[in-house]
Design a protein that fits this description.
CATH class of the largest domain: Mainly Alpha
CATH architecture of the largest domain: Orthogonal Bundle
Largest sheet: 2 strands, antiparallel
Number of helices: 12
Oligomer: single chain
Distance between the termini: 24 Å
Number of domains: 2
Helix content: 55-70%
Shape: globular
CATH superfamily of the largest domain: Hypothetical protein, domain 2
């Protein structure tokens, strides 16, 4: 697809893209933030809709507060690698929940930059790499300048010759290099970073979601 067609598509969806990003910025409660953290533990290799439905079920049933990994797993319907992910969710609960009280907002609103916060998440949340941490921060309104290098983004970056090939694996160094190339590309075509990501996601899924 020529850049001109991409720009036309962007203009047609721009109001919806901006509205979605504004929605992310309104997320502020402890539960909403923790929901997004759990959701991003589930997303690798799985469809976002299934992951969000599973997340909502975990919270509505209160299993997120008192379920063991086996009980958590029962709610991960349609989510791949659910054995490992249920254990990671239990680990995240141990970090951020005390006596059924979620305590996470003080961590994400502690004054450090999104890039510094991404590093902290990667180092401390089991199951989080740069992609998952960037996704989580974008979904709570803090990561609009961070790349979520999922397969759909990498595929599009190759399509527009931003990268020569889709890497088989992403080291931290390679992730940051591609993130910088994507940032330069978005600047050159005049589409904000996070809006381009959501635009490509909508092409993949047919809707602007998460």
């Amino acid at each position: 697809m020529p850049i001109s067609e991409l720009l036309v598509k962007y203009e047609s969806k721009k109001p919806l893209l901006k509205e979605r990003l504004d929605d992310f910025k309104k997320i502020n409660s402890e539960e909403e933030i923790f929901k997004e953290l759990v959701f991003c533990i589930l997303t690798p290799g799985s469809r976002a809709k299934f992951c969000w439905k599973s997340t909502e079920n975990l919270f509505s049933s209160k299993t997120i507060f008192n379920g063991n990994p086996k009980q958590i797993k029962k709610h991960l319907v349609g989510v791949r690698f659910n054995n490992g992910k249920s254990k990671r969710i239990a680990g995240a609960r141990k970090m951020f929940v005390n006596n059924n009280r979620i305590q996470i907002r003080n961590i994400v609103n502690n004054g450090i930059t999104p890039r510094e916060l991404r590093e902290w998440l990667v180092d401390n949340v089991n199951g989080y790499g740069y992609k998952e941490a960037s996704h989580f921060l974008r979904n709570i309104g803090l990561g609009e300048d961070l790349a979520i290098l999922d397969r759909h983004v990498l595929k599009n970056l190759k399509k527009y010759d931003v990268i020569e090939e889709i890497p088989k694996s992403l080291t931290i160094k390679r992730y940051l290099e591609i993130e910088e190339k994507m940032k330069n590309f978005t600047t050159s075509i005049g589409i904000p970073f996070a809006e381009l990501d959501l635009l490509w996601w909508s092409d993949e899924t047919g809707e602007v979601f998460k």
